Structures
1.
Amino acid sequence: MKPDEKVSKIIEKLKGVYPEPKLALHYSNPFQLLVAVILSAQCTDERVNQVTRELFRKVKNPQDLINIPLEELEELIKPTGYYRQKAKNLKACCERLAEEYGNAIPKSIEHLTKLPGVGRKTAAMVLGNAFGVNEGIAVDTHVKRLSQRLGLSTSKTPEKIEKELMQMVPQDLWTWLSNAMILHGRHICRARNPRCSQCPLTDYCDYFLNK
DNA sequence: CTCCCGATAT
DNA sequence: ATATCAGGAG
């Protein structure tokens, strides 16, 4: 099967299962989404939600977060791991949002990735889900694993995988694809014990076909 | 490439 | 008990 034919089939199948995939993260505005995604680095979304449930009662905008003492912030986010780094990044990030963006969230990957603690994955995810802007594809561990198992990419770095996916997939589907692949990776194409028997993509999956 | 960290699956 | 999960910065 030709590569673009394969991509079309995969998209078609995923659309059947995940017509409107949304993030598992809880948030009520773009700022909270940014905070939640920063906290989600190397951490499950469920755990982030446990933490933000408390955190977002106190923090609704960058200024709120700046006003929380560093030690208190560290304690609040501790269960998400890397809590010292994340607390420091979050503080610095909010100071920049306050100083340079009038407490708003910038709407481009360019600007977002310059914020402390924000890489391509976080930027693409915030942009796509808070503003509906398809400027990149959030390649997290799930998107990476699915891309490799399906044989959509042979690259190892998220940056290269993102570029390859961006070539293959229509731009208006970038955010949708990322969200769908993340859901599929969590529930079906899991890192350990993937549920191939429940997967609609096995006909197009190198991993399944070669095992 | 290494460091940053807690929680859960095995 | 220990391997595995899960991104960004220096």
Note: Residues 38, 40-44, 81-82, 85, 89, 116-122, 140-142, 158, 191-192 of chain A lie near DNA strand C (CB under 10 Å from a C1').
2.
Amino acid sequence: MPSVTDADFERVRALVASIPAGRVATYGDIAKAAGLTNARQVGWIMREDSADLPWHRVIGASGRPAAHIAAEQLARLRAEGVLSVDGRVPLRERRHTFL
DNA sequence: AGATTGACTTGAG
DNA sequence: ACTCAAGCCAATC
């Protein structure tokens, strides 16, 4: 039954909400933690509901946010204490694993 | 039902 | 390190 249900939706939201300030997670990690098969579904969910979530803590595997929101994310992350170098976040230090 | 699109990822050149 | 292509899966036309 690989389709995105309300449960998946909520699960992703919970995971994103659980990312502590000053940390970031990749779409792939969230997908894996949420039990989704691929990262694109996470991206899709985020696009649908980006309102009440810290979506700025979610970035691509390249350590770089999606192009449309890049400026916003970098600004917000910088405000949270994440030092973005040359428009990208040092995943090696900032990547949050969901234990 | 088939084609297109996309807040992704990985690997090759 | 950067760009390009293909793989991926679900939603939307």
Note: The longest strand of chain A covers residues 25-26.
3.
Amino acid sequence: MATRREELVSVAARLFAERGYHGTSMADLAEAMGVQKGSLYSLTGSKQELLVLVTREGAVAFHGALDAVPEDDEAPLERIRRALRGHLAVVAAQVDAATVFTREWRFLEEPERTAFRAERRRYEERWGDLLREAAERGALRSDLDVPAAVLLVLSAANWAYTWIRPGADTDALADRFFVILLDGVRGYATRPA
Amino acid sequence: MATRREELVSVAARLFAERGYHGTSMADLAEAMGVQKGSLYSLTGSKQELLVLVTREGAVAFHGALDAVPEDDEAPLERIRRALRGHLAVVAAQVDAATVFTREWRFLEEPERTAFRAERRRYEERWGDLLREAAERGALRSDLDVPAAVLLVLSAANWAYTWIRPGADTDALADRFFVILLDGVRGYATRPA
DNA sequence: CCTACCGATCGGTAGG
DNA sequence: CCTACCGATCGGTAGG
């Protein structure tokens, strides 16, 4: 059973995602909670605190998805596929938190803003590790431009909040991306030998 | 020589990109223009009008980049490469307008908001056409998942405003993406025959 | 959780 | 382009 505080955090996630942090007023949140504006301050210290909690929720979810990727060193490509599935699953299950994590985080005040950037960088580096390890194990082509590949896959992941609908088959979507990333859009015929 | 009105539009692009539409006040814009707040209303009718102008600037720039792609039907892959170069070049040359176009458009009021969405859909469809035509001409693998490929390439394009720095060699960056999109991250060795 | 209120700021206008 | 101002709303607080 969700506490009123937890309810408020999830309402904040929804409205921050819909209208933006600065486009959402405490009065908006109060109305969505069915209480008067002043009453919110028994549940949170400030609007900014709600932003901190929602972005943190996103960070935890995305890192958690990567944590769930099996450690199996024998299948580095499969690990990448799992990571992509995991990321898209988080976006579908927690669109609002994912949206705030990806788009509204910049309205965090210091020092949380800097801490957030470090946290996000850490997430991106974990993706970099996944690809780098796969390359080192020979599962990726030896002449691969790893930084560009990381940026490409993170672009797909980070843009997902704009189009994923809750309830979508994210595993299938992730696999469709994965197939293209693996072997490219070009036909075998025109591929160099 | 830029008029004061044009200056205001470009200042609005910068601040809307930096602080968000709702995070930017008319007082902020006035300060950046070096005038009093009330004076802005001889240059624009409203803050919302500025948002309309900036998003429109982005739309014109992105469509213009696609218009500049040569019509040569003999080289459908080259056209895709050119389109990617063009998009990233716009992002680098007009980061602020590109950012507002990609992220702040949702604060447009009706009916401009709906019109914007149609415009953006048209842009995405032009990308879809590029890939579909390439597929039809046999330049892409026959079993390609075209919708997923379009979404992947648009993800890379739409996410670019978050990391591209003005002055970057966007042609080289576009080509690095293009190479990966073409033949994938996997090595030749493990590729099916 | 409510009522009542705070000073500050919001986008915008009038008149010059 | 300025000064002076409008009513509305902002995030937040006091006291119950």
Note: The two ends of chain A are 60 Å apart (CA to CA).
4.
Amino acid sequence: MGRSPCCEKAHTNKGAWTKEEDQRLIDYIRLHGEGCWRSLPKSAGLLRCGKSCRLRWINYLRPDLKRGNFTEEEDELIIKLHSLLGNKWSLIAGRLPGRTDNEIKNYWNTHIKRKLVSRGIDPQTHRPLNSAVPGVPPAATSPPSLPVTEISLISSSLDRRPHGNGYYGREKLEPKAEPLREDNHCTTSSGTTTDEELKAPRNRQQAQGGSELNLELSIGLAPSCRELNRNASSVTANTAESKLQEVPYPLLTVPTPAAAAAAAAAAAVCLCCQLGSRSGGMCGNCQSNGGSFGYYAQLGS
DNA sequence: AACCTTCTCAACCGCTACCCG
DNA sequence: ACGGGTAGCGGTTGAGAAGGT
């Protein structure tokens, strides 16, 4: 059938944005809020396609963006999240207030990849580059993506947490910052969320469904492993939390060939430990896994 | 100073998921 | 249930900056 172009290419500017264009976009969004990107350029008097406006706003003009260098903590968090989520830049960005998916993607490709390689870690698989462990496939063969069901569980849990930059991807469920405009009949990225909460029970069910889970426990200022385990033990075996506990991430826990073998065999490593909340040492899960520390713990500090 | 190479990152492109009539 | 329209995502590109010769 063929897709209609997102904009009338003949009458749109391309390339770098001028200050005037930026100002027009900022002014317009200040007045009317985000949303209805398709019609925004016309309304704002911009000779740009809506997509371009959206990108410009999200990646550059949003007032809550944190410009400047990434901190060491951000670096490590990105690495950990990437090892967990793969190239889900928008989800990763959701955990880094003030950072955009594009920014993180660029930063990953230009800095972190190199950093990991210099550490001897394959940036795609998060395995040691020269690991030749029996039973563990070569680094380049398998991306660190999780099974779809697990990804969606994680996405849902991530999405349920508000984050500072107010940027929510399609799957994100948390309400955004209140839009500035009063009314908008378009489906908006900023205004839908409230509606979304009403209209999208499917997503909510996915996230809740009797299995409320909160990855913040693991990623941010994580509670002790014990606490997480206690919480996990209080829910039924088939809840999302317990599923997360079961997610096999041998990729994350391969510091040595021996540990790699142990991890691959056990294939069940405590998430909180993988995500770096091990300040107090190994948790019970990891201990039962033959001492397969997440190697980030050793590298990160 | 001029040229070349490498690096960075903003912007674009194409695809997919989702919404709505 | 279906199809069109739109927003959002991830991969890629290319212009400009920075560094090297």
Note: Chain A has 16 helices and no strands.
